[in-house]
Amino acid sequence: MKQKLYELAHARSGDKSELTTVSLFLYDESLYSKIESQITESTVKQHFAHIAQGKVDRYELPQLAALHFVLHQTRPGGVGAALDFDAHGKSLSWYLLEMEVEL
């Protein structure tokens, strides 16, 4: 059964220069291993392909039932130079939560 991440977690995000960070926090820590195996650097890079021009790093935080992602080269010249309507990384946590996982 597929579920959207917003049903299983909450997220926070932000930006600094040409980096965007997104952290995912699961409501139920027993789902951590299933989510960790599906929400990878590769799947996040693919999901954010429209803005993530560089690599994606993932940091596992099992003690918090969380995953932290750093997306490189998301805003050429930084947020101040971005021409997007909503250029700030703060809004991108909701975009991550639109991903689906198989439970």
Strand order of the largest sheet: 2-3-5-4
Largest sheet: 4 strands, antiparallel
Mean of pLDDT: 88
Total domain count: 1
Total count of helical runs of at least 4 residues: 3
Query: How far apart are the termini?
Result: 5 Å
N-to-C order of helices and strands: EEEHHEEHE
Instruction: Tell me the overall shape.
Output: globular
What is the radius of gyration? 13 Å
Low-confidence blocks of residues: none
Report the oligomer.
single chain
Structural class: alpha+beta
Total beta-strand segments? 6
Determine the strand fraction and express it as a percent band: 25-35%
What is the percent of helical residues?
Answer: 10-25%
Descriptive overview:
- The protein is α+β, with helices and mostly antiparallel strands and 103 residues long.
- It has helices spanning 32-38, 41-47, 92-97, and strands at 2-4, 9-16, 19-26, 56-61, 66-72, 100-102.
- It has one domain.
- The chain is built from three helices and six strands; from the N terminus they run βββααββαβ.
- A hairpin with a 2-residue loop joins β2 and β3 (19-26).
- It is globular, with a radius of gyration of 13 Å.
- The mean pLDDT is 88.
Secondary structure blueprint with pairings:
Layout: E1 2-4, E2 9-16, E3 19-26, H1 32-38, H2 41-47, E4 56-61, E5 66-72, H3 92-97, E6 100-102
Antiparallel strand pairs: 1-6, 2-3, 3-5, 4-5
